[in-house]
Amino acid sequence: MQCRESCGACCIAPSINSPIPGMPNGKKAGERCIQLNAHHQCKIFGKAERPAFCASLQPSLEMCGNNRSHAITWLSTLEQLTAPASYMKNTEY
Fold first, then answer.
1. pTM of the predicted model, to two decimals?
2. Do the domain assignments include residue 48?
3. Which CA distances in Å does 36 have to 51, 58, 76?
4. What is the pLDDT of residues 7-64, one digit of tens each?
5. Is 3 among the domain residues?
């Protein structure tokens, strides 16, 4: 499966704890990555500076579903289910 055009759910929903160019502390869950352009495409896709976490996300029917809304919901739910309890106390969804 290939990424859905103009989706960007994986660049918004999950938290990223490693540095991203322009975001040295990573990003919080639900925060738009600075590397996501106006067309919801990653500006550093395929480049060495792209975080390993991002490269590890592979599109699948389970994750992406039939639309962007499904992908955001699925990834946000996964984020909530896997976040440490102390993190959840300090995060608003």
1. 0.82
2. yes
3. 13, 17, 17
4. 999 999 999 999 999 999 999 999 999 999 999 999 999 999 999 999 999 999 999 9
5. no
